Amino acid sequence: MNFNSTDIHSFRDIWVFCEQRDGKLMNTDFELISEGRKLADERGSKLVGILLGYEVKDIAKELGGYGADKVIVCDHPELKFYTTDAYAKVLCDVVMEEKPEVLLIGATNIGRDLGPRCAARLRTGLTADCTHLDINTKKYIDFLSTSSTLDVASMSFPMEDTNLKMTRPAFGGHLMATIICPRFRPCMSTVRPGVMKKAQFSQEKADACQIVMRHVELSPEDLKTKVINIAKEAKKMVDLIGADIIVSVGRGISKDVDGGILLAQKLAEAFGDGVVGGSRAVIDSGWLPADHQVGQTGKTVHPKVYVALGISGAIQHKAGMQDSELIIAVNKDETAPIFDCADYGIAGDLFKVVPIMIEAIKETKNA
Amino acid sequence: MKIVVCIKQVPDTVEVKIDPKTGTLIRDGVPSIINHDDKTGIEAALQLKEQLGGTVTVVSMGPPQADVALREALAMGCDEAYLVSAREFGGSDTYATSGILAAALKKIGYNIIITGRQAIDGDTAQVGPQIGEKLQVPQVSYVEEVQEATEEYVVVKRQFEDGYHIIKIKTPCLLTAIAELATPRYMSVRGIVEAYEKDVKTLGFEDLKDDLELDMIGLKGSPTNVYQSFTKEVKGAGTILKDLSAEEAVQAIIDKLEAKFII
Ligand SMILES: Cc1cc2nc3c(=O)[nH]c(=O)nc-3n(C[C@H](O)[C@H](O)[C@H](O)COP(=O)(O)OP(=O)(O)OC[C@H]3O[C@@H](n4cnc5c(N)ncnc54)[C@H](O)[C@@H]3O)c2cc1C
Ligand SMILES: Cc1cc2nc3c(=O)[nH]c(=O)nc-3n(C[C@H](O)[C@H](O)[C@H](O)COP(=O)(O)OP(=O)(O)OC[C@H]3O[C@@H](n4cnc5c(N)ncnc54)[C@H](O)[C@@H]3O)c2cc1C
């Protein structure tokens, strides 16, 4: 095949790898398609989704509703469940033929397995776990001005540059780095779930989206692993990423763990349909299951309201919640670093403050 | 059975500081450690060896100081250690790093390769799968349990956000380890003494050059480049209510939430 990743002018369009599990699209897909739409408009190119699975043709149109011009569907029984071998083969084959300029993949457990395998095969760069993307340089400069400590006014950037500028946290969130991949295509990036804003769904756009079925070739020699059993975790996982209200607890509940978690649940209910999260200290102590963890090694969340109860505010915790729309912290130590990112803080004992807060919210709502 | 574990020496990120003006890292005086997931990988490899026989080899690419990390691995019970080090390798991104490590692994030989899922400094989780691709061996990442291991195949439990797969993979293969896989043992006193008697072998540019994509190593050859690094603007601290009674403090917040139509 005449594929050459350094012949950068032969590549065009923005692509999003759309992940499905059990034949259902994931929220990440809609976020990435929405973000991809913006990038395609900045670049003046098309936005294409690529969907791999088995009997998934019918779900493809929905991607159009968030901005995809076209969805390429690769349908094959061997693609029903994710395997690195089959997915990497099919995705790379299509990319080598169609030559997209940009390929975005959700930074899920699947994306972070598939992305690097494909980037190595395609002979191109891959930027990991991105939280911000720009093509337009002016927009990038605006982004730096509002979200970095750099003295942007004294810096100069090549304005006509059309490389995708991919920004990601490294060193546990201590450092942000913007990465480019100037000499190779496609320019690949895995994008952190829950970060990009989902656009408004449009039925009209969904109807207009073009669906292209693609022939898939897979032979037994392509598959060196075999999935012999599949299990869902018995418990339903808590949906921290999609939640509007999150009440998280930290080691500060230690004097009455069950009581503290119950208070958090009640507060989350008082606010509305809230869910309970936790710091790593809470997860490590076995007080809440691992899927409740917020932070660098847990989930990144963007609720409308984040309440931190008895959480000190370590950088690794903040990395997962500091972009919440509104942050309320309760901590008995008024110098706790969590207060540095809180909109409202109460210096006090959570076991005393939270019951009062629950009552006050109920009263206000009933008034 | 030859098991090779790739380990990376990383700064203890809890102690890393950034110069807010230039956005560069201040590494001076920050202690270096073996990356957490890689220590897990060493433990898993030692357990496989105890079960199947064979040897455990550790490999690290980095400056000469990475010798310390390799000796710690020897002290935990690994048999052999290689330092992959050359001026030409400096500044490599994950594509370049995995290419260099793959060349080293070809020299060393392997049945099972274990890497950490992710290093805590670069945080990309890309090097493992990219080594797998470059050596054309199958991979399973996010391995949380090895259920069965023989010379021909391994059966592992692979973690997903919402469940797991049990996967049978033929050897030679590559696995990436997550914390759940094993609890690393401590170095033994005898191990520490022996670690300093064993030699750490070095693989340099000349040793590997026949297996390298020469225009794709080091800072210049890496496909990705750091365009800009910076620290995040910290959100200005809001109102901290400390001299009020709990009731007054709560009411003050509730009033604001109501004004913002949140409740
Ligand atoms: C590589 C790495 C990754 C990590 N990833 C994460 C991550 O993803 N998420 C995460 O959260 N952490 C993470 N951590 C751990 C992090 O560094 C902190 O150790 C952790 O967040 C601390 O949890 P905490 O705030 O609950 O506990 P502590 O730091 O012990 O804080 C407890 C707080 O509760 C307050 N308190 C005590 N009693 C009360 C009371 N009655 N009322 C009110 N306040 C009270 C105390 O004043 C204190 O501030 C990571 C660390 C490392 C090294
Ligand atoms: C701020 C910043 C951002 C970066 N972003 C990117 C990016 O987006 N894309 C990119 O391609 N590169 C990036 N890099 C470069 C990348 O960090 C280096 O290539 C690094 O050497 C390897 O990547 P990692 O630390 O992410 O390792 P990971 O891929 O997270 O490591 C996984 C495993 O691979 C093994 N391993 C990794 N490195 C070594 C080693 N040197 N020796 C032995 N085993 C090893 C270990 O077992 C480790 O657990 C970035 C660098 C910096 C400073």
UniProtKB/TrEMBL annotation, chain A:
Cofactor detail note: Binds 1 FAD per dimer.
Binding-site residues, FAD: 251, 279-280, 293-297, 310-317, 331
GO biological process: fatty acid beta-oxidation using acyl-CoA dehydrogenase
InterPro entries named in the record: DHS-like_NAD/FAD-binding_dom, ETF_a/b_N, ETF_a/FixB, ETF_alpha_N, ETF_asu_C, ETF_beta, Rossmann-like_a/b/a_fold
Residues in Electron transfer flavoprotein alpha/beta-subunit N-terminal domain copies: 14-227
SUPFAM superfamilies: Adenine nucleotide alpha hydrolases-like (SSF52402), DHS-like NAD/FAD-binding domain (SSF52467)
The keyword Flavoprotein is assigned to this record: yes
Cofactor(s) required for function per UniProt: FAD
Domain of life, source organism: Bacteria
Transmembrane segments: none
Single GO molecular function: electron transfer activity
Pfam short name (any one): ETF_alpha
Family: Belongs to the ETF alpha-subunit/FixB family.
Protein name: Acryloyl-CoA reductase electron transfer subunit beta
The species this protein was found in: Anaerotignum neopropionicum
From TrEMBL, chain B:
InterPro entries: ET-Flavoprotein_bsu_CS, ETF_a/b_N, ETF_b, ETF_beta_N, Rossmann-like_a/b/a_fold
Cofactor names: AMP
Electron transfer flavoprotein alpha/beta-subunit N-terminal domain boundaries: 22-212
GO molecular function: electron transfer activity
Domain of life: Bacteria
Pfam families to which the protein is assigned, alphabetical: ETF
The family this protein is said to belong to: Belongs to the ETF beta-subunit/FixA family.
Name recorded for this polypeptide: Electron transfer flavoprotein small subunit
Annotated organism of origin: Anaerotignum neopropionicum
Origin organism lineage: Bacteria, Bacillati, Bacillota, Clostridia, Lachnospirales
